[in-house]
Design a protein that fits this description.
Layout lengths: L6 H11 L5 H12 L1 H4 L4 H8 L3 H10 L5 H14 L3 H15 L5 H22 L2 H13 L2 E6 L4 H11 L5 E5 L6 H5 L7 E5 L6 H13 L2 E6 L12 E4 L4 E2 L2 E2 L2 H31 L2
Parallel strand pairs: 1-2, 1-3, 3-4, 4-5
Antiparallel strand pairs: 6-7
């Protein structure tokens, strides 16, 4: 791995070595992979704080991959930024400068920042959506018996929407929210043929991880919506869909995740309706 390698080569090397990295460096790897558009403007202290490690750990991470330090590693992301004409990066720079200068001048300015960050995230989702994985996800939900939906913390609202939407279809849907009950107890009722639909992003709620492990132990299927292929929970899932949220003034949006959830529900509804139409047509042909 050479320090002047491009961003894709670097991230591929991180993915390859990820299982061998110490836990602290794994946290840094996950953060870098899931915040690519922001790294070019973040200080080593910003990354260390987000990963709950010392700045020296970020430097060690950079040196692990052949860089002299964080600044040289950051140059890989800056080079990728310059090579791209996409609007998300240019706006990320604007947000970075605004954050460095202090609080926004007005609530309206903050609102526009969030709106733009949401638009940038949707553009990224559209460009990076894995069509084949999405089709497998729809098929998995269409052929499953019971669907258990789990989401904790900031993912709770997305999980709640999916439960509301899925209950309008011919699917038994269970909400595993952890509110008033122990999540893993609800998941223990799962059986082979059921599917756990989990939404989680770094730093990955421990309760969600336990639910995934419990579902796997029960022999159930797992559909995971998360932010990076480096997430340690990815190997537990049958199908993984990725969505990265952009940030404004230090807060991540939810726009891309909720959009992906809505698209998944609508695609499933169409799939079930088509299946019903085919069955109905077959029944008519038998008379």
């Amino acid at each position: 791995m050479k320090p002047n390698a491009d961003q894709r080569v670097f991230l591929d090397a991180v993915t390859e070595q990820f299982p061998k990295l110490p836990k602290q460096l794994q946290r840094i790897a996950v953060y870098l992979e899931s915040h690519q558009a922001q790294i070019a403007f973040q200080r080593v202290q910003d990354i260390a704080g987000a990963c709950a490690v010392q700045p020296s750990a970020v430097v060690r991470f950079a040196q692990r991959f052949g860089f002299s330090g964080y600044s040289e590693l950051q140059g890989v992301f800056r080079d990728a930024m310059r090579a791209s004409d996409a609007s998300p990066v240019s706006y990320a720079e604007r947000i970075r400068r605004e954050m460095a200068s202090g609080a926004p001048d007005s609530g309206a300015m903050l609102a526009h920042s969030f709106i733009q960050a949401s638009k940038d995230g949707l553009d990224e989702l559209s460009g990076e959506l894995d069509d084949q994985a999405f089709e497998r996800a729809v098929e998995l939900l269409a052929t499953t018996r019971d669907i258990y939906v789990v989401g904790m913390g900031r993912s709770l609202s997305v999980a709640a929407y999916l439960v509301y939407a899925l209950r309008n279809l011919s699917k038994r849907t269970h909400f595993v929210s952890g509110m008033g009950s122990t999540p893993t107890l609800a998941v223990r009722t799962m059986e082979p043929g059921d599917t756990l639909l989990a939404i989680t992003a770094a730093p990955y709620a421990p309760e969600t991880t336990k639910c995934l492990e419990q579902a796997r132990a029960c022999g159930a299927n797992i559909l995971l919506i998360t932010d990076t292929s480096l997430a340690p929970i990815c190997p537990l899932a049958n199908v993984v869909l990725f969505t990265r949220e952009h940030t404004a003034f230090g807060f991540r949006t939810l726009t891309s995740t909720i959009c992906l959830a809505q698209a998944l529900f609508i695609a499933l509804a169409y799939r079930l309706e088509q299946h019903s139409a085919i069955e109905y047509g077959h029944e008519k042909s038998t008379f």
